[in-house]
């Protein structure tokens, strides 16, 4: 990667998040970065972006942006980094697995870059953790019930969710477990845990609420540095109601920062 040249970006996955990221990169809205192509599971006809094989992507890209889910991140992170390609991950919940997290940490020379995704305040939480540790964080997430149905749920759990007429607590527990059980919905808890550097300090409460037109995240933290409370309400993506519409824009912001850092 030569300083001063364009930051060449490959986008892994072309769903609700990846399609917006690819489109914006192709339109040139991230200064100093360009779309090299998209990496798909299988070839797609009628797509306006170049489709890259893994071989071509690792040869031609400076950065791969993962917009494809925890499984795709687990399968590809180490080889991306080992090729000297940076990796911007949206599915950070995969890092709740300590074995995977250690393998990613040991991999390089590419750098793993995280994103705030659907939430904010991570810079302040990171600073507070550095100052004296964050004793406890509670992330309360409220989403439409249908977006929380999971493949591992039994019939009764599914119908409780589908027929909920008011808020129902679906999960309460540590962030690592939350990220594993709700892989597409609780990457925000992982982002908080990574920002404070302590998975055990972060607890999650997940509410299914038929009135939750906007997806809500309340983040309440305290420790020796102070007390913090952040409230975020995002409209869901029209393409995937499990994902907030802001997420691709958070990734684009992270790509811009990474591109700027090379200048
Ligand atoms: N950090 C956050 O705040 C946040 C928020 C929402 C979603 N996410 C993460 O982003 C992921 C993607 O979200 P989305 O709404 O775009 O999902 P989506 O289902 O709309 O799109 C995912 C795309 O990835 C593709 N894909 C899956 N596995 C792949 C693989 N191995 N190789 C190539 N392509 C693959 C799918 O075919 C699909 O097109 C979610 O699974 C979640 O883990 C993170």
TrEMBL record:
Gene3D superfamilies: Dihydrodipicolinate Reductase, domain 2, NAD(P)-binding Rossmann-like Domain. The keyword Transmembrane helix does not apply. Residues 13-99 form the Aspartate/homoserine dehydrogenase NAD-binding domain. Its EC number is 1.4.1.21. Residues 166-251 form the Aspartate dehydrogenase domain. Keywords: NAD, NADP, Oxidoreductase, Pyridine nucleotide biosynthesis. GO terms for biological process: NAD+ biosynthetic process. NAD(+) binds at residues 118, 187. InterPro entries: Asp/hSer_DH_NAD-bd, Asp_DH, Asp_DH_prok, L-Asp_DH, NAD(P)-bd_dom_sf. The iminoaspartate product is unstable in aqueous solution and can decompose to oxaloacetate and ammonia. Belongs to the L-aspartate dehydrogenase family. Specifically catalyzes the NAD or NADP-dependent dehydrogenation of L-aspartate to iminoaspartate. This is L-aspartate dehydrogenase. The gene is nadX.
């Amino acid at each position: 990667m030569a300083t001063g040249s364009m930051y060449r970006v490959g986008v892994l996955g072309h769903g609700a998040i990846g399609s917006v990221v690819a489109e914006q990169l192709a339109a040139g809205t991230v200064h100093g970065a360009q779309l090299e192509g998209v990496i798909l599971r299988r070839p797609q006809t009628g797509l306006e972006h170049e489709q890259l094989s893994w071989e071509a992507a690792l040869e031609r890209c400076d950065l791969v942006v993962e917009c494809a889910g925890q499984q795709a991140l687990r399968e590809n992170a180490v080889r991306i980094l080992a090729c000297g390609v940076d990796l911007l991950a949206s599915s950070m919940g995969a890092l709740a697995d300590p074995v995977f997290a250690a393998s990613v940490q040991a991999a390089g020379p590419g750098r793993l870059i995280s994103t705030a995704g659907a939430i904010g305040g991570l810079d302040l939480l990171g600073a507070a953790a550095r100052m004296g540790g964050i004793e406890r964080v509670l992330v309360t997430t409220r989403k439409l019930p249908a977006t929380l149905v999971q493949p591992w749920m039994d019939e009764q759990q599914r119908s409780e969710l589908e027929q909920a007429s008011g808020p129902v607590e679906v999960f309460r527990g540590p962030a690592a477990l939350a990220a594993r059980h709700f892989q597409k919905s609780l990457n925000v808890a992982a982002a908080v845990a990574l920002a404070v550097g302590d998975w055990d300090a972060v607890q999650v409460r997940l509410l299914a609420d038929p009135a939750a037109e906007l997806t809500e995240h309340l983040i309440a933290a305290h420790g020796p540095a102070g007390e913090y409370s952040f409230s975020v309400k995002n409209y869901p993506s029209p393409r995937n109601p499990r994902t907030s519409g802001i997420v691709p824009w958070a990734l684009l912001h992270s790509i811009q920062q990474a591109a700027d850092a090379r200048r």
